[in-house]
Write a structure and sequence with these properties.
By secondary structure, this protein is mainly β. 9% of the residues lie in helices and 45% in strands.
């Protein structure tokens, strides 16, 4: 409000961020980020659009201007400029203030339930291993779950006495997502990309659905719903009569599972839709046909929805309020309330068939930006967080690290920090948008990134923060992937994906908006500093991974530096090329001379890694900047539900 009052005293006048800081913050040195944040909040409160402003306009490189009329409504005889401005402001923006207060009141009514006492929680993880993904037996007295010991994940069963857990599956291949059948005789689970069934009495498992995952039973036990190729399918209880649920939109490169589940009466399916980001909302669709219906409107990292037995609500895990916990969403009204509070991630809820018990798993995880000193073998943690952080990218002078990650409100924002460590500086602030995969411009002035808000785009922001500028509208990173901007900021090279495979590499001219096909198909393309070459993982005949290659822009043939590798990166002086081999939570980092005159050298194992893959960069002295992911053992908790 202080910023708005200050602007209203100078209607139509361009006011710099420094002037606003001098007046509102007393001149304390803090950069122009607080001004940008305040203006962004004002625009959200007023429903203003930065591209077509009604109230506050941004004047590039100069400051801000109040473009709305300021009316003098002070009674005759009063000669106080401050009084005139503030009275006018109160009258003009009173509806906005009332609306904000009303919104707070409504939110309190929806989320704060004084009549709902805290749930009494009981741990059922008093034995060895990491325990997760629980599923109730039909009688609600026993639980099937995944127990991970020494890296091996298998289906276990915990009886009603909770004293003697029993292992059902074994072998070299991990199991996931167990679901107890309604008749109590068998358990579905996923293994090796297929759905298996194992009798509870411990006989051999049988593969019933090839090429499927994340199964769920209908409540009568006659059908199974599952995922296949980013789609939702249904089948009979023995795996036969398979058919696709046609109303569920197919995604080319989803970063989050769909987690489908039947409604109690078997007429509907709830699933998660995450577009091209990991941030999903709940949707439901009738099996009789028709369009899907959106249930929630707050996309965040979410998973594993389960219907209440009466069909009136859905409980699922979501990071919609910062920490990841369990939420209960009303089917009729769409209102949501948190069921739990506390540390760690609450996930994989299940409700007993009588609706009286809730079981779920809880884990703690940490993300750290690490500097690995290859010469000494030391590893220095530069920044650590309980929230997701990913994608470190060094500035051209190798002094700053840009990355993206989750904030406490669950939004995905851009940050930067010194390569020597220290507190990160947040660069973007729109909580309704996703800002991901930052890439520095060659002069260090801008950060280019993928931006999602009411559609996708390739955008940029000044490296000190500020307004987001759209460069290419309609660019979705799941299709137009891995964009790298040329040193002169006039074009971008990118890969067009089908599914997860690059099928074509193109160069987009910013001025004309035209694409030119590149002669090689490259994944993770990167311009050289002189703009004459492009580094990437070359793909031929849909083979994955590809070959590390340097391709002259003006040529027609690439130089191959390494085979069957991925994620290449230039060294600071571009005399060497780094790349990665392997998949999963441990991957190997190599380096090879750019001129191909020398053997590749293994530098280190990057472990543990998150499932999204290896994101790294290399300092001028050859240290590796990467994100280390640590997941603590998961536990299973049980509670009695108080009712809807």
């Amino acid at each position: 409000m202080d910023v708005l009052v200050y602007l209203s005293r100078r209607p139509g006048t361009v006011v710099s961020a420094d002037e606003i800081i001098d007046s509102v913050w007393g001149g304390r040195p803090m950069g122009d980020n607080p001004v940008y944040k305040s203006v962004a909040k004002l625009r959200r409160a007023l429903g203003d659009d930065a591209n077509s402003p009604t109230y506050i306009a941004t004047v590039a490189k100069k400051g801000y201007r109040l473009v709305a009329d300021v009316v003098d409504e002070t009674p005759a005889g009063r000669d106080t400029t401050r009084a005139r401005s503030e009275v006018s402001l109160v009258r003009r923006f009173l509806p906005v203030v009332v609306g904000i207060l009303l919104g707070i009141t409504v939110a309190a009514a929806l989320f704060w339930r004084p009549d709902a006492p805290p749930l009494e929680l009981q741990s059922v993880s008093g034995f060895r291993g990491s325990h997760g993904q629980p599923s109730f037996a039909p009688d609600g007295r026993s639980i099937a779950f995944i127990n991970t010991i020494d890296g091996a994940a298998h289906v276990w069963v915990l009886g009603s006495d909770q004293s003697a857990p029993r292992q059902l599956t074994s072998g070299e291949f991990n199991a996931s997502r167990p679901r107890w059948s309604p008749d109590g005789l068998s358990i579905l689970f996923t293994r090796q990309g297929s759905i298996w069934s194992i009798p509870v009495d411990g006989d051999e498992a049988e593969e019933i659905i090839r090429d499927g995952s994340n199964p769920n039973w209908s409540h009568d036990g006659k059908r199974i719903v599952f995922e296949r190729h980013y789609e939702v399918w249904v089948a009979s209880s023995d795996g036969g009569q398979q058919s696709r649920v046609t109303g569920v939109p197919r995604k080319e490169l989803p970063l989050a599972p769909r987690w489908p589940a039947f409604s109690p009466d078997g007429t509907e399916i709830v699933f998660l839709d995450a577009d091209s980001t990991p941030f999903a909302d709940l949707w439901r669709i009738s099996l009789a046909g028709g369009e899907p219906i959106q249930v929630t409107f707050d996309p965040r990292i979410s998973s594993a929805p389960v219907w209440s037995p009466d069909g009136k609500s859905i409980i699922y895990s979501s990071q919609r309020a910062g920490s990841r916990t369990l939420w209960q969403v009303s089917i009729d009204s769409g209102t949501a309330r948190p069921l739990l509070t506390g540390s760690g991630d609450d996930n994989f809820p299940d409700i007993s068939s009588n609706g009286k018990k809730l079981v779920y798993s809880n884990r703690r995880e940490r993300f750290a930006i690490v500097r690995s000193h290859l010469a000494s073998g030391r590893h220095t943690v530069l920044h650590e967080s309980r929230q997701l952080l990913i994608g470190p990218e060094l500035s051209p002078d190798r002094n700053m690290i840009a990355f993206f990650g989750l904030t406490s409100d669950g939004a995905v924002q851009l940050f930067k920090m010194p390569v020597s460590g220290g507190s990160p500086l947040q660069l973007t602030f729109d909580t309704q948008a996703t800002h991901a995969i930052p890439r520095w411009s060659a002069d260090g002035k801008y950060l280019y990134f993928y931006y999602t808000k009411n559609g996708a785009s390739f955008s940029r922001v000044e490296s000190g923060g500020g307004e987001v500028e759209t460069i290419i509208p309609g660019w979705d990173w799941s299709v137009t992937n891995g964009a790298s901007v040329s040193p002169d900021n006039t074009q971008a090279v990118y890969s067009r994906l089908t599914g997860q495979a690059p099928v074509q590499t193109l160069v987009r001219q910013f001025s004309s908006g035209e694409d030119q096909s590149f002669y090689a198909t490259l994944e993770y393309p990167r311009w050289s500093q002189d703009g004459l070459s492009i580094l990437g993982a070359r793909h031929t005949d849909q083979r994955f991974p590809g070959d590390i290659a340097i391709c002259p822009v003006a040529g027609t043939r690439c130089s191959i530096l390494a085979r069957d590798a991925r994620v290449p990166m230039w060294s600071a002086d571009e005399s060497q090329v780094y790349f990665v081999r392997g998949f999963g939570d441990s991957q190997e980092l190599f380096v090879v001379p750019r001129n191909g005159d020398g053997a590749e050298t293994k530098l280190m194992d990057m472990a543990p890694l998150m499932s999204l893959g290896p994101f790294y960069d290399v300092t001028s002295d050859g240290d590796v900047i990467w994100v280390r992911y640590k997941e603590e053992p998961s536990e299973i908790w049980l509670t009695e539900l108080a009712g809807p």
